[in-house]
Specification:
Pfam families: HEAT_2
Structural class: alpha+beta
Number of domains: 2
Number of helices: 21
Distance between the termini: 58 Å
Protein name: HEAT repeat domain-containing protein
Organism: Catellatospora bangladeshensis
Shape: globular
Low-confidence stretches: none
């Protein structure tokens, strides 16, 4: 009965009452699990399921088996998802429940156990043998998370991974190579390096360009002389790669943990073959990477484009973020910046012809004052429907982004496909930071 009262207190509008109930339920431990699981499965719930799931995760081991049952058996997707979240983030001083779950017959449970051990990092070392066996799991999702968990063990897992690479079992060898790449690519055996180089050469012969999802900055230079581009940007140690691998490296570095990677975040760039006479460079040259505040970054971008355009006749910089509306472009010719535009940032130069027919980011169309009258701002569907109707009735232009400007001024990587004509080879090259600090570890798709 007391548990039921505490559950009701969790739904209270009084934050002090909520907090007291949470603390009491966590102190109760195993005794509180049945009531919390019942509330998690209740439809509709009285308490936000994320709150219930977080409390079960804090209680830890006593909630482990009940949560696995909910995750694998409950009919409501949101309930299963919350149970999965709670299993992944349990506060366990003793990791035995995760270790035992690695052999569970349901692959979803094995996956959550691997995720939990990955979060534990080096604390999971006593269970390394079981994790290594999971590298050969028949389920692809389990294998992927087992690789991540083994990678999180760090350098202490390297000897065992090298033994798997050398002597098997064969079903684990590819996953072991992936884990080694995530821990320290330098430890990969020369034989494996040679095999990867051969694979890259073979795939590059028949590879078709694919659309890229831009997130970060890239340069476009009107030249097919890749060596000149590398020299102008102080890039070295160029290694041939597939387009897919180069794209994966760019995406990986853009989303790596800045706190742990430091200068390795901008240690390499992806340089494409010539695309309709333009060479594209994805990543941050050192001059931009070391400009940390917005003002100095925009100045560095303009200076870089001006310098490169004096060498190649023109130089364009573009940038987009996959998580918000940030976008930027800088267009320079013969040593002079013609246009610089950054959403919510600096701008210089007159409107460029490539921007004609578009709204600029942040620019509002001229609409009647009552254009959105009667539309609930909290209803995104209704809001989008009204916006689409207004755009059609008032011929409102689309808002442009860097890819739109790139399409009009050089080459748009988001539209790459079998129709895209490329000549030459793709390479990954090191920046000055790459030469000094090495590159970010991680396996990349070939």
């Amino acid at each position: 009965m007391w548990n039921a009262a505490l559950i009701e207190d969790l739904a209270s509008a009084d934050e002090a009452v909520q907090c007291a109930a949470e603390q009491a339920l966590v102190r109760a431990g195993a005794a509180a699990v049945p009531a919390l699981v019942d509330e998690l499965c209740r439809t509709p719930p009285r308490v936000d399921r994320t709150v219930t799931g977080a409390l079960l995760a804090r209680i830890g081991a006593p909630a482990f088996t009940p949560l696995t049952d909910v995750m694998t058996r409950h009919r409501v997707r949101q309930v299963r998802r919350t149970a999965r979240f709670a299993l992944s983030w349990m506060r366990l001083d003793d990791l035995t429940p995760y270790a035992e779950a690695l052999s569970h017959p349901d692959p979803r449970v094995r996956t959550q156990a691997a995720i939990g051990l990955r979060h534990a990092g080096a604390r999971a070392l006593p269970y390394a043998t079981a994790l290594l066996e999971l590298l050969g799991d028949p389920d692809a999702d389990v294998r992927r998370h087992a690789v991540a968990a083994v990678t999180a063990l760090g350098p202490q897992a390297v000897p065992a991974l090298l033994r798997i690479r050398a002597g098997g079992p064969g079903r684990c060898r590819l996953a072991a190579l992936t884990a080694l790449a995530g821990i320290d690519p330098a430890v990969i055996a020369e034989r494996d390096r040679a095999a990867l180089a051969r694979l890259i050469r073979i795939k590059s012969r028949t590879e078709q360009p694919e659309p890229m999802r831009p997130c970060g900055t890239w340069l476009a230079l009107p030249t097919t002389d890749q060596a000149a581009v590398l020299a102008a940007l102080d890039l070295s140690d160029a290694q041939p790669v597939t387009l897919r691998l180069g794209t994966a490296a760019w995406w990986h570095d853009q989303h790596a943990d800045a706190a742990t990677m430091g200068h390795r975040l901008h240690a390499r760039v992806f340089v494409t073959p010539a695309v309709d006479g333009w060479t594209l460079v994805f990543g941050l040259p050192t001059a931009l990477a070391h400009a940390t505040d917005p003002g100095s970054w925009s100045r560095a971008a303009r200076d870089l484009c001006a310098r490169l355009s004096a060498r190649f006749g023109a130089a364009h910089l573009y940038g987009m973020a996959c998580t918000d509306g940030w976008t930027v472009w800088c267009l320079a010719e013969h040593g002079t910046v013609l246009r610089y535009f950054e959403a919510d940032g600096e701008r210089c130069g007159p409107r460029h012809p490539a921007e004609e027919g578009f709204l600029l980011p942040g620019e509002q169309p001229d609409l009647p004052a009552d254009a959105y009258a009667g539309v609930d701002p909290a209803d995104p569907g209704a809001w989008a429907a009204r916006r689409a109707d207004l755009a059609e009735r008032h011929a409102i232009p689309q808002t442009c982004h860097a890819t739109d400007i790139a399409a009009a001024t050089s080459a748009d990587p988001s539209t790459f496909g079998p129709h895209t004509r490329m000549t030459g080879r793709a390479v990954l090259a090191l920046t000055a930071c790459g030469r000094a600090y090495g590159t970010a570890p991680g396996a990349l798709e070939i």
